[in-house]
Amino acid sequence: MTSAHLLRLLRHFSWWHWLAISLLLVLLDYTVLHTSRIIDQRAGDVLLREHAKRRPVSTGVVVVDIDQRSLERMNEAAGSWPWPRSVHGELTDYLARQGARAIVFDIHFNEMDFYRPEHDQAFAETVAAHSNVYLAMALQDSGSGGPMASMIPPAVGVTALPGANPQTRIPVLLPLVMLQHKQPGAMRGGLINFVEDSDLVGRHYLLYKDYQGWRFPSMPARLARDLGWPLPQQGDRILLNWRGGWQHVSYADLYEDAQREQPRRPLMEFKDKVVVVGAAAPGLMDLRLTPLASTYPGVDILATSIDNLRAGDWLGEKPRPLVLPFIALLLGSIAWLFARGYAPTRILYGLLGVNVLVVAIVWWQLGRGLFLPLFAPLAWGWGYFWLCALLAYLKERQQRERAMGMFQRFLDPRVVSDLVANGEINTEVNAESRQVTVLFSDIRGFTTLSETRSPEAIVSLLNRYFSTQVEIIFRHGGTLDKFIGDAIMAFWGAPVNDPDHAKHAIAAAIEMAEALVRFKAELTELGHDFDIGIGLNSGPAVVGFIGSRDRLDYTAIGDTVNLASRIEGQTKGVARVLVAESTMLLAQADFSYRDCGLHHVKGREQEVRLFEPGRLGTSGNGS
Predict the structure, then answer these.
(1) Could you tell me the CA-to-CA distances from 39 to 184, 226, 349, 491, 506 in Å, in that order?
(2) Cβ distance 599 to 607 under 8 Å?
(3) Sequence-distant (≥ 6) Cβ neighbours of residue 400 within 8 angstroms
(4) Burial code of 233-268, b = ≥16 C-beta within 10 A, e = fewer?
(5) Rg of the chain, C-alpha, whole Å
(6) What are phi and psi of 118, to 5 degrees?
(7) Strand ranges inside 320-462, DSSP E
(8) What is the full DSSP assignment across 221-270?
């Protein structure tokens, strides 16, 4: 499809047609395609980042960070990573003594350490000795391996849904170190699966995950159940309410303090707090893409989800289809404003105001714990606005081209474009009454002239004569109405308002008479019988495009026009130019006048007083 075809297609439909098409595309997007969802996601990320900066560090959850410093400092005591699991056992004992309400490991213990089984044994016994230790699990999306559902210890917390098969093998990573060392009751924990949205960004955290009729709780949900925190009533996940930072404590600092006979850290430092142990060191590769950063530590994601359930301040979110009425209202309002002829710039400013208001509402609701997906509707609004702006431009250009094509027949082509651009003439405006001055000019002696020359010569002569006269009319701001045989009709005062229409019309008539003298000189002896008569009258007339749909003419009609034609008929034997008294009075100070007396004109009972105008200092132009 060429650009010309595209433009014709765009112009073919109205605002309302394109509104219907746009709303159909919106409905398709929100129910099937979901292509605009990424707009809600990415724009929401910006607000979530700003909102997170304003939320203080949690007082209820602490992250024990296996950072790069810990990897370096622990190298002498525990060797290179992964450390013997007895190290984690010693830290667990220390955290328990410090009053931690729950100790959560964001580390998998699904594989045995065959070279250091005694360390696994020590760790398993330590975890079994503390009922507030929770271990990480992960449910894989596919796989044929894994334990049968009937073999999973009750401590894991898996529940059977209706129709669940106990023989189903489930691809789940469990802390098998506990099972290997005969501590199945210590396999408390939950899933720490990372959840990606459609754009691969992690914004949610699971509450549970199902596999062939078996439901596994997530780590935050397991803690909520055991510690009595409220859980959402619906849905299998929560939208995370991020914080700008966490209280991070270096793993190495705590481990070193645990080895001292006299610990230096505050007593009961972690009283009633949930302590999450995990790795933020870049080399351990537990970094994820989130709204806050492209390399956000997985342990901080887990800490966020736990803190959200602990405080009950996770973010609620409205289903995207609920905003469809708002989109319909927004697009409908834009279509209505364009259809009513409002300027695109005014509509643009209004749309900007709507954007500011919507962002303010989303921000306000975010502070109240609710995320509203209102950014994609704004994008649809902008898309429809620019479509309508293009349609308005094409419509205006079409009207301008039409106006220029029409008015160039009646006005000086050099000024038509300026008048159209300034909106002073418009083909859409209906005919209206205007105060105008009408001029009729007719050739005398044309019959005698045509008898002595060939038709081709006569046509050439008339073209030269008309060109000269029309140029004078245009130069004085007149509008050429039509050629009637060998006569010319023109008027002043429309389509552009001209308060001096009588003055300009008389000036044009005088110059037309003077131009005739020069033209007669060029005809030599053939110009003896060639002459013109010009009649002018001023008054009200109906002016505008008049005619059929396929054939329009910009013309003036009314008694003022008829009288001007009759006055032209009175010029023979009196003067080349005659004006009605109404015209003379409008330009009395600009010209000299010779009173030519009262004349009886056809169609009028009362006689009409006529005047011959001349330049100031003269008495007329002669007959």
Answers:
(1) 46, 38, 22, 59, 67
(2) yes
(3) 420, 421
(4) eeeebbbbbbbeebbbbbbbbbbbebeeeebeeeee
(5) 46
(6) -65, -30
(7) 370-371, 432-444
(8) HHHHHHHT----SS-SEEE----S--EEEEHHHHHHHHHSSS--SPTTTT
Residues contacting residue 549 through CB under 8 Å, at least 6 positions apart: none
Q: How many other C-beta atoms lie within 10 A of the C-beta of residue 604?
A: 13
Structure-block tokens of residue 572? 């023979």
CB contact at 8 A, 44 and 51:
no
Across-strand partners of 216? Answer: 209
Summarised one tens digit per residue, pLDDT across range 73-130 is 999 989 999 999 999 999 999 999 999 999 999 999 999 999 999 999 999 999 999 9
CA distances from 530 to 140, 446, 520, 604 (A): 106, 6, 7, 30
Cβ-proximal residues to 419 (8 Å cutoff; 6+ apart), any chain: 407, 411, 425, 495, 496
Q: Say what percent of the chain tops pLDDT 70.
A: 88
- Asked whether the whole model's pTM tops 0.90, one would answer no
Q: Enter the tokens of residue 384.
A: 């429809």
What does the CA dihedral 322, 326, 328, 329 come to, rounded to 10 degrees?
150
Q: Is 578 exposed, middle or buried (0-12, 13-18, 19+ CB in 10 A)?
A: buried
Beta-carbon contacts of residue 402 (< 8 Å; ≥ 6 apart): 427
Residue 50, φ and ψ in degrees, nearest 5: -65, -40
